[in-house]
């Protein structure tokens, strides 16, 4: 119940520290032995546990007594359909190709992210934590990525038939090369390539960087191509300048999907560029770029923008069955 409270709060874009309070409380309760749990329940001393405050203690007390916490009831009652105009396309999506866990800058373990994806009806979900150059996001070195692959293999045995797709959001470096070993990238199911640095490079430089990246045979998706921010706690950021016709022609020619990023603060690409990519016969991937479980339900935002700009469902690679998607990525 504490985790569900956190899910609804994340979904509605609550402040991160408020959400984390419920996740910390859930972890604290989960760590209790049965005897300890019974003792705290009998004397009502939940606030004696480190990480539990008055609001989380009230929710725990109600749940431990067999009731649905008031806070959870409030959130369930307030929940509404996100981006209803995108609902038809959302029902066709089989998975999400851009997500993050606490291995980089996400807020939750891989298993919690993926069990939430299952609950949302996904058949597959790509884990795409950041690459090493993005140190501020705790990007994965080659050694850490190899360890993550072992963890994913074990989880896939437990979660089957659901499939965690191995992946990475790899930085596009200044010369268009990729921020991870080519041998490792070749092993992954899904590689999302994104620009995170020098976003104000001139148009010629940025165009060359992006074309080199999408032409790389290991790249499957071009992530949030303009890098813009239109709202949110991080402030706003203008679009990077590049020749979109040249970049999208490279995406078409080399079979790299253009991501429609569903994060409300990104809304990337802008509508005019989605329409241009449609005209140029590109493939698309509608992704959440989720950094927390509740954000996995944001795909409707991207679906709404896709439909408004003429994207056909059959051109969206994550509407495809797993075998077809993997064949596309392998090619």
Cα gyration radius (Å):
21 Å
What is the overall shape? globular
In the CATH scheme, what's the topology name of the largest domain? TIM Barrel
**Largest beta sheet: what is the strand line-up?**
1-2-3-4-5-6-7
Terminal-residue CA separation: 43 Å
Number of helix segments?
A: 14
- Count of individual beta strands: 7
What is the number of domains? 2
The poorly predicted ranges are: none
| CATH superfamily caption of the largest domain | Metal-dependent hydrolases
What is the CATH architecture term of the largest domain?
A: Alpha-Beta Barrel
Mean pLDDT: 96
Largest sheet: 7 strands, parallel
- H/E series, N to C? HHHHHHEHEHEHEHEHEHEHH
Helix/strand/pairing class, anyone? alpha/beta
Oligomeric category:
single chain
* Proportion of residues in β-strands: 5-15%
CATH class of the largest domain: Alpha Beta
State the helicity in percent bands.
40-55%
Give structural notes:
The structure is a single chain. The chain has 331 residues and is α/β, with parallel strands linked by helices. It folds into 2 domains: 2-78, Orthogonal Bundle (DNA polymerase, domain 1), CATH 1.10.150; 84-330, Metal-dependent hydrolases (TIM Barrel). The protein contains 14 helices and 7 strands. The protein has helices at 2-11, 16-30, 34-43, 54-64, 70-78, 87-90, 110-119, 142-159, 182-187, 203-215, 244-254, 271-279, 299-308, 322-330, and strands spanning 95-96, 124-127, 163-171, 190-194, 221-222, 257-261, 284-287. Strands 1-2-3-4-5-6-7 form a 7-stranded parallel sheet. The longest helix is centred in the middle third of the chain and has 18 residues, at 142-159.
């Amino acid at each position: 119940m504490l985790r569900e409270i956190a899910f609804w709060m994340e979904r509605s874009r609550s402040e991160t520290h408020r959400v984390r309070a419920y996740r910390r409380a859930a972890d604290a309760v989960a760590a209790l032995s049965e005897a300890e749990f019974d003792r705290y329940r009998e004397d009502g001393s939940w606030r004696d546990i480190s990480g539990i405050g008055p609001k989380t203690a009230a929710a725990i007390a109600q749940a431990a007594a067999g009731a649905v916490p008031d806070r959870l009831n409030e959130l369930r009652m307030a929940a509404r359909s996100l981006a209803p105009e995108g609902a038809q396309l959302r029902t066709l999506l089989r998975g999400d190709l851009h997500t993050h866990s606490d291995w980089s800058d996400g807020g939750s373990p891989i298993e919690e992210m993926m069990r939430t994806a299952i609950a949302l009806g996904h058949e597959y979900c790509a884990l795409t934590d950041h690459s090493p150059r993005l140190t501020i996001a705790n990007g994965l070195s080659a050694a850490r990525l190899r360890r993550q692959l072992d963890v994913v293999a074990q989880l896939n045995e437990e979660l089957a038939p659901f499939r965690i797709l191995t992946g990475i959001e790899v930085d596009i470096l200044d010369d268009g090369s990729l921020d991870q070993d080519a041998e490792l990238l070749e092993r992954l199911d899904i590689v999302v390539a994104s620009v995170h640095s020098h976003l104000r490079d001139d148009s010629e430089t940025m165009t060359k960087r992006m074309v080199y990246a999408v032409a790389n045979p290991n790249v499957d998706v071009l992530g949030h191509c303009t890098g813009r921010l239109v709202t949110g706690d991080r402030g706003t950021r203008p679009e990077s300048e590049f020749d979109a016709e040249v970049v999208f022609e490279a995406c078409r020619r080399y079979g790299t999907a253009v991501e429609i990023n569903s994060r409300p603060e990104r809304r990337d690409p802008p509508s005019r560029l989605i329409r241009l990519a449609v005209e140029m016969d590109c493939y698309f991937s509608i992704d959440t770029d989720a950094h927390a479980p509740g954000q996995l339900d944001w795909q409707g935002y991207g679906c709404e923008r896709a439909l408004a700009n003429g994207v056909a469902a059959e051109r969206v690679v994550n509407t495809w069955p797993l075998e077809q998607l993997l064949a596309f990525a392998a090619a």
